[in-house]
Amino acid sequence: MTRFLSGDLPRSRVLATLLIVICIGLVAAPFVFPGARSLNVAAKVAVFVLLVASYDLLLGYTGIVSFAHTMFFGIGGYGIAIAAAKLGPAWGNLALGFIASLALTLAIALVIGLLSLRVRTIFFAMITLAVASFFQILASQLSDFTGGEDGINFRLPALLQDRLACYYLVLAASAALFLCLLRIVNSPFGRVLQSIRENEFRAEALGYRTVIYRTAANCLSALFATVAGALYALWLRYTGPDTTLSFAIMIDLLLMVVIGGMGTLYGAVIGATVFVIAQNYLQDLMKIASDATSGMALLPNLLHPDRWLLWLGVLFVVCVYWFPTGIVGKLRARRAR
Amino acid sequence: MNRDWLPLVLILVLAAAALPLVPSSSTWLTLTVAGLAMGMMIFMMASGLTLVFGLMDVMNFAHGAFISVGAYAAASVLIALKGGMQAPSLAENLMAMAPALAAAVAVAGVLGWIFERVVIRPVYGDHLKQILVTMGGLIVVEQLIHVVWGPDLIPLPKPATISGSVLIGDAAIERYRILAVIVGLTVFAAMWLLLGRTRLGLLIRAGVENTEMVESLGYRVRRLFVGVFVAGSALAGLGGVMWAMYQESVTAGMGMQMMVVIFIVIIIGGLGSIGGCFVGALLVGLMANYIGYLAPKLALGSNILLMVLILLWRPRGLYPASKA
What we know:
The structure holds 2 protein chains of 2 kinds. Chain A is globular and about 60 Å long. Chain A is mainly α. Chain A has helices spanning 13-32, 36-62, 69-87, 91-116, 121-141, 143-146, 158-161, 163-185, 188-198, 200-205, 210-236, 241-245, 247-260, 265-292, 299-302, 308-322, 326-336, and strands at 152-153, 238-239. In chain A, 79% of the residues lie in helices and 1% in strands. Chain B is mostly helical. Chain B has one domain: ABC transporter involved in vitamin B12 uptake, BtuC. Helices cover 75% and strands 4% of the residues of chain B. Chain B is built from 13 helices and 4 strands. A two-stranded antiparallel ribbon of chain B has the order 1-4. A two-stranded antiparallel ribbon of chain B has the order 2-3. In chain B, helix 2 runs antiparallel to helix 12 (274-294). The chains are: A mainly alpha, B mainly alpha. The interface between A and B is large, with 39 and 38 residues.
C-alpha cells in the first residue's frame, strides 16, 4: 500500500478516512446514488481531482501561478471533440485527436515556459492570463472548427455510449494518473520542484537549473490537464467554451486547490470533492436559507443561490491567509499536535 | 522624466504605417481618434496598477474590481440624474456627469483604501499569496456587486449632446471619443506634473527606484504607498465609468475583461513606468482599431502580437522602471 501511494501516506486518521470514503463513494456511485445528476457529479469529481492535482503540481509544489491551465484542459477536450465530430466516432480517430492535442499542449507549454519562466512569478501569471484569454477568443472565433460558442456535440464508439462503461473508464484513468502524479511529486524531481518553491536561489546554487525544472513542471502539469480535458469530453460527449475554457473554471480550480490544500495532492481530492458537491448541492441549501430570510433587506440577496461563489470566495481568502495548507494541512497539523 | 524618445516615435510610426493601408484619409482619421480615445481610457485604468507595482512590488489582480465598482457607482448616480443626461444642453449634461464621475472616483478610492488595509497589507513581499488573495478579492467584490446592484446588465446611455458624431472634413468622429481624449490627456498631464514637478512626485519616483534608500532618509514609503494605491483605485474607477459609457452598458465582469488588456499594456510599458504605460496604452488602442478595421479576424490577436514584438525589442518593456 505504501509503495502504491509512493510512500506519501495521508498521515492523519481523519484524512485517511475521508479519502477512503471518497474512493468508495466514487467507485460505488452508480449503484448507491442512482440517477443522472449524481452520476454527473461523481464523474465531474473524478475528472476534477485529476485536473486540480495537475494544477497543484504547478501551484503548490513549484510555486508558479498559471492562468492557462484551463486552456490545456480545453485543448484536450477539443482534441477529442473535433476528432470525433469531423472524422467519426472510431477508436483510432479518438486516439489521433488525443495525441494531436497532447502534442499541441506540449508545444505551447514549452514555448510559454521558456519565454516567461525565466523571470518572476507575476510575469508568468500575467502572460498566461493573456495567452489563455487569447485562446478563448480564438476558440469562439474559429467556429467552423470548434463550433464557436455552441461547442461541439459528438458521438462516441459504441462501447463508450454506455454511461456505466464510460464512467468507469473515466474513473480508472483518472485514478491511475493521480497515482502517477503522486509518484512524480515524491520523486527526486518532485523534491527539486519543492526546493525551488522554498528557495529558488538556493536551489540554483546547489546546481539545479531552475528554469529547466520549472519548464518541465509546467509541461507535465499541462499534459495531465490535457488528459483530464479529454476524459471530461468523453464523459460529456460535448466540448464547448463554458465546460472547458472559461475563466470561471480557472477560478474554480484556484478555489479547489487552495481550499483543499496547496502542496499536497490529497488536497486536490478533498478540494475537488468539496467544491463540486458545494457547486451542485450548496445552492439548494442556500435557496432554503434565502427563502427563510426573504423578509429582511439585503440578506436574501447575500444568500441567493446564485451567490454561492461569494461564500467560496470568502472561504478562499480566509484559507490563503490563515490556512495556507488548506483542509489537508489542518487535518495533518491536528495529528502532529 | 527620461530622454528616450524611440517609443514615442513608435506611436507615430504605427499611425503613419496605417495611413497607406486604409483606403481613405478620413477613415484613417476616424480610426486614429478612436484608437487614441481607447488608449486614453485604458491608460486611466492601467496607470494606478503599474505605479502600485513599481512602488511597492504589489501586483493587484483585483484592480479590475475597482473598474467595475466605479462604473456601477456612476451608473447609480446617472440613473438618478436621468433628466440632466437627456437634456439637450451641453452644460446640463456635464452637470449630470460631474457628480457621476465624482461618485465613481470616491467609491473606487474608498474601496481601494479598504482593500489595501484588509486584503493586501498582510501579504507584502509574497507574490504567490498576493496573486491568490487579490484573485479571491476580485471574486468576492464581483459577487458583492451582484448582491448590491443585481445580476443584470445595466444600460448606460451617453449624454444627449455628447452622443453622435461631428464631421471634420469627411471624417465622422464620435463626440464621446473627443471627450475621452480630453479627459485622458488631462489625467496624464496632471500625473506628469505631480510626478515630475512636485516634492511628493519626487518621493514617489524615488520610491519606485529604491524604496530602502528613501526609507533610510526618513520618509515613510508605506504612507506614500497607501496614497498611491487609493489614487490608483480612484483612477481605475474613473476609467471604468468612461469605458462603461463608451460601451453604453455596465456589467460586473467588465473589470475582469479589461484586466487582460491592462496587463498587456503594463507589460509593454515596462512594469512600474507611467510613461511606458501611457505609450503602451496608446499603442494598444491604435493597433486594436487599425487591425480591427483592416483584418477583423486578426483583431483579437493584435494585442498579443504587439506585446511579443515589443518584448523581442525590449525584453523588459519600453521603459523598464521597476527594481526587478
